[in-house]
Amino acid sequence: xxxxxxxxxxxxxxxxxxxxxxxxxxxxxxxxxxxxxxxxxxxxxxxxxxxxxxxxxxxxxxxxxxxxxxxxxxxxxxxxxxxxxxxxxxxxxxxxxxxxxxxxxxxxxxxxxxxxxxxxxxxxxxxxxxxxxxxxxxxxxxxxxxxxxxxxxxxxxxxxxxxxxxxxxxxxxxxxxxxxxxxxxxxxxxxxxxxxxxxxxxxxxxxxxxxxxxxxxxxxxxxxxxxxxxxxxxxxxxxxxxxxxxxxxxxxxxxxxxxxxx
Length: 262
Description:
Number of strands: 8
Strand content: 5-15%
Largest sheet: 8 strands, parallel
Radius of gyration: 17 Å
Low-confidence stretches: none
Helix content: 40-55%
Shape: globular
CATH class: Alpha Beta
Structural class: alpha/beta
Mean pLDDT: 93
Distance between the termini: 9 Å
Order of helices and strands: EHEHHEHEHEHEHEHEHH
Number of helices: 10
CATH superfamily: Metal-dependent hydrolases
CATH architecture: Alpha-Beta Barrel
CATH topology: TIM Barrel
């Protein structure tokens, strides 16, 4: 089974299914999104979507009210294609810590979703995810995915590794290969057994090759669609791996194990 470990709801969802079919991807982890760059028709409309993205990943729009439309879109996509999508849900990091556990119990575990993410703490404040990890641990170790590209800092990655060591029962996934800090991300994930590294948006092919070589059992194929393309992301993994067990693990075997599908 080939699993895209990182994707966001598309508008329309049928376009996403077409991309998965074209790439030969069986299933995709699906996160809610508050921005839709695929809706843009010209540079100016794309600037508007990317401005909203900057707010989201910069942690300036994390209150519960900001998520409602995105959650409705996620629900609709999961209901329409339960055989293709694996639902994850973000947690508003602006909630008081004592309410985060209630949110996870009600909105994630209570709705049968498979994990939490993609979390976007403000730069320099990765420690805000600690109550999320605590709540995930209370539910048997739900996987937690954290945004890894800019504006995430190298210090944020180190904080995430410290938190992962404090909650070893929770699989903590750093997305987008850690962005500009990919060498730090590879080393931290390699040395922290409960961490995983998702490979989308890599801008250097040898970064993907090195990540898989250093962490063969905890690297995950992902596209970050619609920002990336599942076919291109799959081709990148296949370019740096030979056919066989290792490639199969990266393209889906590890994700299936992580998600309880294997």
